[in-house]
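haha ok so turns out i had the wrong file open the whole time. this is the CORRECT one, sorry everyone. sequence first:
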Amino acid sequence: MDLLRHLRHFVVVAHELHFGRAAEQLGMAQPPLSQSIQRLERELTVELFDRSRRQVALTTAGELLLGEAEELLAGEGRLRNLMGQVRAGALGVLRAGVPPETPAVTLRTLLDALTERAPGLDVELHELTSGEQVRMLTERTLDVGLVHHPVPEDGLRFGAPVDVPLGVLLPRTSPLARDRELPLAALAGLDLVAAPRATAPGWHDHLLAVCGQHGYRPARVRPARNPEFLFGLVLAGGSVAVEPATVARREPRIAWRPIADAPLAKRTSAAWPDRSAHPAAPMFGQLAAEVLAGADPAPAASTSLPAERPWPVLFDSTG
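then structure:
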């Protein structure tokens, strides 16, 4: 027996106290409505309506049932709405991964956008490399992540990609910093500071391949997991890094110069399991693409480097 359906019929009749009007409101014929009420009465073994008079009236049992039925049906509505929000990804927990180097302002903007779009969603954020994210997405211990391409595509679905231009990081006192842009071949003889290959194997191999194709084969690739260590290696001399301009903004003694002969870009997109994905994963991917695409563009290099104003000079677009 579909108890909720019969209770809905009962509530409408109880309010109308007229089977004809109730049937019209429910969009059904009167005989099936009468049969529905009779079946409910048999199920509950009580009479809900007094039909002995010309006007339909509620019995004591009917009056008591009306309040309970309305509360039950309201609860059903809340339950369906709640489950609908879960299906839409507006509620529940979303386990999301982001690369360790993600700027704080980018994280804040992304989290604010998620809160505005789905205020009931609990975002459980994890700092993970692309390699770690791909593994956890495959193991289903992560719902969605931001990965640097190329990555294996088996079993994954991807959001819109965003390409972030890369340039050379070097000490602002380096003679190479005097040029507005640098060909990769000009870096010959210098070590390359980069994230360990295990963090993003596809990207690591792509970067070295492009450098080699354009005349830069670093004597050593020096691994650095966090920006502070990267800055230390670069400032110590003899090393450069290839990173987005936003990385250089964290250290005023570091200059960023565009690459002249082989424009490089780090492609990033959201990724989530292809099957049985979290309902909020596509929304996360869309918002992440919007946030990454709206980040500050790469600045024009300046050759004017007055020591008393190092921060704005590094990113002065009027030089």
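The mean pLDDT is 87.
again sry for the mixup
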